[in-house]
Give the backbone structure.
Amino acid sequence: MEEKDEAGVIEILYYLSGLAARYANEGLENDTRKLIEYMKEIGVASALARQEIVVTNTILLLSPVAKEACRQGMENALVNIALALGEVGKAAAGQRMEIPAKTAASCLGEMGNTAAFTKTRKEIIAIIFALGEIGKSLTNQSLGDVANSTIALLGETGKVAANQKFEDATLNVELLLQEIGKGAIEKNLKETASTSARLLGDLGKAADRQGLERALLQAVYSLETIKFDAEDRYLMNASIIAEVALMHFESLDLNKLEEKLNKNFRGKRRFTNND
């Protein structure tokens, strides 16, 4: 795309963003969501065409719409925005465009971790899913530095979920951190693997404080997986971080807790140590 054409697309994005914010202000949630979808489609298509400036503008122009939707209590529109940021950020990461991928993650982090947003359970789950998709794509492309900052935001959002006792959301973060950590180990991204282990330890402690028993067990299982996988690939720093984190939970009777949970769920094991 020529520079002149890119400028034209950016002008369209500004128009769509302004119109979406106006619709949100007027309480027209369905119309707002349609415009968010249009912006997402432009962003993804631009990422696949490697039009980085258009992608970055798409991401930035979703932010004012999100703030207006939050002021109006439009939960579904906020979920759409989070998922749109995830899709555009993932597409950008897949094309190794670090700046828009990092920008998308930062916008999601703001939605998940600042007082400006209401952070309902539905919104938090959407934000977690979107950050996870970006983090996995960055890891797959071996973009370790941006992956680190993205999973740090994922971990912080997980703490918000734990503190609000959204256990299913907390579980999702732990499983995503495990998946990203395993991917980082395979790609020899030492810092990303270590960060995943550290964040899992923090989430396990948060789950313990909040009485989230399933999330506590999952944190332990995920840490064990990271520990053994890191040892196999000689990523000793990640393995040590995971082992130290596991020491915190040694005083807990995890076998008894697991038996209790299995009994409560009619004997169906809900947690697996994914080797």
Q: What stands out?
A: The chain has twelve helices and no strands.
